[in-house]
């Protein structure tokens, strides 16, 4: 399956606006500024569909993109950004919590972490939540262009140790060079074969 058609559907800022799950959802989760929106754009081959920024905290709601008229790509607001108010952080984390608990048709969660750094406490919490919730997820290690091949291989091994997950796939990725974009596309497409 190719992602031929894609369009912005809506942004959700409050729990009451979250509509019932109608289409299968591929979810992009991770720390602020880690590259979630950039990955979406790369997958959909659209430079500016999901708004990206070098300023963290760009995505402040849950953004839905409709793909091929049958899947939602869901861009979550990033966590762990220090420079927003306590009230705003709380609003975002409650919204994301509510989203995950609202019995949606989750096809795949792409949990994105920056390949250069050890996973943060929030990354580990999120990964743990995905594990205990039995959600199907994959770890994408973003910004691989910032490291040499041998450096990133070492980082992948370290992350396996730190997250205690060897069994799931961890894919280094760069939205700059397109490293592994085809693999990620294939994995997403494989969810929709039948
Ligand atoms: N070098 C490099 N830069 C990247 C990569 N992916 C994203 N960036 C840059 O990192 C910054 C943040 O990217 P975004 O895609 O906006 O990150 P985000 O996770 O959506 O951020 P929030 O919306 O704030 O949660 C931008 O300046 C991107 O150009 C990558 O693979 N390599
Ligand atoms: Mg974003």
Please describe what this structure looks like.
Helix content is 32%, strand content 22%. The chain has 194 residues and is α/β, with parallel strands linked by helices. The chain has one domain: P-loop containing nucleotide triphosphate hydrolases (Rossmann fold), CATH 3.40.50.300. The chain has a 7-stranded mixed β-sheet, sandwiched between helices. The relative contact order is 0.18. Magnesium ion (MG) binds at residues 36-37, 58-59, 75.
Q: Layout of helices and strands, plus pairs?
A:
Layout: E1 6-12, E2 25-30, H1 36-44, E3 62-67, E4 71-75, H2 86-101, E5 106-114, H3 121-132, E6 137-142, H4 149-163, E7 170-172, H5 181-190
Parallel strand pairs: 2-4, 2-5, 5-6, 6-7
Antiparallel strand pairs: 1-3, 3-4
The structure holds guanosine-5'-triphosphate and magnesium ion (MG).
């Amino acid at each position: 399956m190719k992602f031929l058609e894609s369009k912005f559907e809506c942004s959700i800022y409050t729990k009451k606006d979250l509509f019932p799950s109608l289409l299968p959802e591929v979810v992009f989760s991770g720390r602020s500024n880690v590259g979630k929106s950039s990955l979406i754009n790369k997958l959909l081959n659209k430079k500016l569909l999901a708004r990206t920024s070098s300023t963290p905290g760009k995505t402040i709601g849950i953004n839905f993109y409709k793909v091929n008229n049958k899947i939602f790509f869901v861009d979550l607001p990033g966590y762990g950004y220090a420079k927003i108010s306590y009230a705003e952080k709380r609003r975002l984390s409650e919204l994301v919590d509510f989203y995950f608990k609202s019995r949606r048709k989750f096809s795949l969660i792409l949990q994105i972490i920056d390949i250069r750094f050890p996973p943060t406490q929030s990354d580990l919490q999120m990964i743990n939540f995905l594990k205990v919730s039995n959600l199907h997820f994959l770890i994408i290690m973003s910004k691989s262009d910032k490291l040499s091949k041998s450096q990133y291989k070492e980082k992948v091994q370290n992350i396996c140790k730190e997250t205690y997950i060897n069994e799931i796939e961890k894919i280094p990725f760069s939205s700059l060079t397109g490293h592994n974009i085809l693999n990620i596309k294939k994995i997403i497409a494989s969810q929709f074969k039948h």
